Amino acid sequence: MSWRSDALCAQTDPEAFFPGKGGSTQEAKKVCADCTVRKQCLEWAIDHDERFGIWGGMSERERRRYKKRTRNQ
């Protein structure tokens, strides 16, 4: 997981990546949009069935949809 040391989220408030129910994900997604390791982060979250937080610019619900779409290709 050497990509984690290059992740922009490591330099920001971790609370933004784990918003409470109904909380905004926009701040975290903005950070992810500029991150050079976004793809690795997303792949890790999908491979490890991460159920909480914003990973690779996607929420848990978005990751489930993405996983379903890519599995059917």
The major pleated sheet works out as: none
Which segments are poorly predicted (pLDDT under 50) over 5 or more consecutive residues? none
Give me the number of helical elements: 3
Order of helices and strands: HHH
Q: Averaging pLDDT over every residue, what do you get?
A: 93
- Please compute the radius of gyration using only Cα atoms: 12 Å
Specify the overall morphology: globular
Please give the number of β-strands: 0
- Structural class by SSE content: mainly alpha
Helix content percent band: 40-55%
| Distance between the ends | 27 Å
Strand fraction equals under 5%
Task: Please explain how this structure is put together.
- Helices cover 41% and strands 0% of the residues.
- It is built from three helices and no strands.
- The protein starts with 25 loop residues before the first helix and ends with a helix.
Outline the secondary-structure elements:
Layout (H helix, E strand, L loop, with lengths): L25 H8 L4 H10 L12 H12 L2
Could you provide a short overview of the structure?
The protein is mainly alpha-helical and 73 residues long. 41% of the residues lie in helices and 0% in strands. The N and C termini lie far apart (27 Å).
Main attributes of the structure:
73 residues, mainly alpha, single chain, 3 helices
